[in-house]
Amino acid sequence: MRSQFGRTGGAHKTERGRAASPSAGRVSDQRSGVPPHMADVLALQRSAGNAATAQALTVQRAGASRHDDSDDSGLAYGSDHGTPPPEQETSFTGVVGGVQFTSKTNGPLMRRVHALVRRVAPHMGQQLAAAGSVSVQLGRTRGGTPGEWRQDSRTIVLDQRLASADHLTGTAVFEILNASSRHRIAALEAEVAGGGVAARARAKGWDHPEKFFAMEVERIEWENGMTHKAAMASAGLSGTPADLFGQEGGFVEFYNRQVASGHTHSYEFRYNLLRAQADAAAAREQEAAWSHGGPPDESSSHRPR
């Protein structure tokens, strides 16, 4: 900082007719309680005038912004926390219903996503309310898709590397719909643990209940897709990159495509995991019953798998 001032100030004369330097000004200003970084500014102003001072501070500020995004209150020009133009902002926070949109790295993109979701929101009010408190953030998805819903943290993650802002908006809307239907998924999973899904699957001629379970989860997602399609149409966004389900047809076509892509595998795995957990819990109950001298509960061990 001092070298910048020296190059700009040169050997200008003070009012007393002698050469002045920033360091000389610093001594007197420090005695008066002026911080050292401001002493350089005052010394330069006395020796070089306002125009040169402004030029030096502009150079200093530009150099600082290239190297550091941290707080600049220690620099000579002080801290500027004014609102930057949209194209220059690095962070954004907005809310639609109970959904909070936050980005600390790409404000313009998140602002665009927020604006479009707000446009669609009146056409999916019931689902938006059912979604509850949800956070939308930018990040890297685990499955390599433009977006994903993380139930454990109630977060929708959008991957800006994989899609445009408008496409990510469509993804955000779809994941909000998925969040709104979690109670349906929870009820289906509870039915798995109790053997109800296996019983229904066999009644309908399915030899593999895990595939039947996956189909039922895909049905919920397809219904969310149809809600998405209708909301986009009502918001005047049909045919745009945000309209992810604009060309979607019936459920059978959708389901067959999901099977072919391998999308159903994770749901089949989920079924088997839930069954294993239910069986383990039943085994613990039987062991506890034996340890207390009573007969085991046979009903839990004969539930359909």
From TrEMBL:
Region of interest (Disordered), ranges: 1-41, 54-93, 282-305
* Domain of life, per lineage: Bacteria
- What name has this protein been given in UniProt? Uncharacterized protein
